[in-house]
Amino acid sequence: xxxxxxxxxxxxxxxxxxxxxxxxxxxxxxxxxxxxxxxxxxxxxxxxxxxxxxxxxxxxxxxxxxxxxxxxxxxxxxxxxxxxxxxxxxxxxxxxxxxxxxxxxxxxxxxxxxxxxxxxxxxxxxxxxxxxxxxxxxxxxxxxxxxxxxxxxxxxxxxxxxxxxxxxxxxxxxxxxxxxxxxxxxxxxxxxxxxxxxxxxxxxxxxxxxxxxxxxxxxxxxxxxxxxxxxxxxxxxxxxxxxxxxxxxxxxxxxxxxxxxxxxxxxxxxxxxxx
Length: 275
What we know:
Number of strands: 0
Order of helices and strands: HHHHHHHHHHHH
């Protein structure tokens, strides 16, 4: 994706530089009343084009570097602190600065995901409603319904979550075949857990864990696996998963959730060691 953006940026800058050089040389030779089609004119045009191209590419690389650096900083905040006001402001700026309707739809989807993760459920639904579904890619459409189901589950509305899943299950089936299916597998695990299908939920969480590639996602899987083990009378595995989740936790939200999980374990498994 990065190389692709550089290629398109170079092509755009080359075209702009060429026509800018043509305009400059045309004006210069018309003002000086010299013949336009000469070797000197061509040489000057090439020189101006190359100078403009080099300047514009340097500016573009600086801007791309700044954007990537800011993206990395926001990702670090998201993984260490969760969804903060700064993360939300950044996501909103991405929506406002989108260059076309497709980029805007993708930015709105990312904003909706942040709002859901941060517990801003009403704003999440409002943002999802504003997205032009036709402007989303196939993978983005899968994420769109995943966010809808996930947010309803965390609102406690199992009926709505199940209805959405039943109407859009083909998107979930497709998403499970993707290279990075962790998010949808986790959502399906939460859905089955909410329906008290703990063994099926456990299966989904184990698959999600295998597909996870960061500490935050692994922690989420371990927390729910601990709950599945606790609700199927496997106290030792529940305690082990809770300990693993505690070791992986990075955000304030996760630490608070794990504290609640520990208290539940102590209440449900009185004779076990502390989690």
